[in-house]
Design brief:
Shape: globular
Number of helices: 7
Order of helices and strands: EHEHEEHEHEEHEHEH
Radius of gyration: 17 Å
Low-confidence stretches: 1-6
Length: about 230
Amino acid sequence: MAAAGSDSGGRACFVLGASGETGRALLRELLSRQLFARVTLVGRRRLSLGEEAAAAAEQAVVDFERLSEHAAAFRGHDVGFCCLGTTRAKAGADGFVRVDRDYVAQAAELARAGGCKHFVLQSSQGANQDSCFLYLRVKGEVENLVQSVGFDRCTILRPAVLLCKRQESRPAEWMAQQFLGAVARVFPTAYSVPVETVARAMVASVLQPGKGKVEVLENAAIHELGKAVPQEGT
């Protein structure tokens, strides 16, 4: 629950994909800033949270294969944040499409039906429904599907390679991140972005006026927006 002086205004939000790297960073940002009176984590299992986070965030466990039966989990939220995703290596090609496109699109529909006004989607740099690469094609397709739902506002973030310290071991990705981390010191907004910056940009997109019904933030814009989120009323 938001503390006094946080100006939450009774607003509520949900987070899809809070178990991932960006999702965890987003949850920390949301709880530390106390912008919402209610924060709901929607996922396939309950997450182990610290005592303070567990007290501040609700959790709704859903079966993504039967998501239409869990419409109540998406009801009554002003803003929806989506960081849901997997990898082809982890889930296979069909599983990747199902999670990154189908689950996200169906969740967006349920959120809109439940009263959500603003949907904030983490996509990917290079997303394009006509791409010959499966990953980028699926990201482009889900962007179009989410836009077609008809939210009052839809913000799409297209980060480059995400810099983070993963809980799961991915040696090849670790090596790539070391290289990109060095490159980022020379070209800070070109090829990568820390997950904390993406999380701050997602929050900042809610605080500032929208530039049209649909706004797409490329990597450089994410860096700019995620530098520092100003406190409301300052």
